[in-house]
Hints:
Order of helices and strands: EEEHEH
Radius of gyration: 14 Å
Distance between the termini: 33 Å
Strand order of the largest sheet: 1-2-4-3
Largest sheet: 4 strands, mixed
Shape: globular
Low-confidence stretches: none
Strand content: 15-25%
Number of helices: 2
Mean pLDDT: 86
Amino acid sequence: QMTYLTIDNDKARLLLGELSVYNLIIIGVNPSYATDKISDLTITKVKHFSKANNFNGWLMINIYPQRSTDPLKLHDKYLLNPINILIVTMCFYFINLWLLNYYIIK
């Protein structure tokens, strides 16, 4: 099932993926032009990597949602967007949970 969450008339993408049972989660800096209908180079690589490593789903999360192929053109418009803050917080929470499980609880 395709997951696609954008804001500001598609100028900013929060989530893109095909979720299933065993998912690869990728955290990127900011999205390019990929949509739920069109892939860009990054999404194409994510899809190939997930299949090659036996994941049956994937989710691309960006810590900053503004679409841009040039990082120098990013602005701060979405910095305090509540959805973006929630997504970034969840990313860091799950990374810390994974590190705790992998390095300490093991």
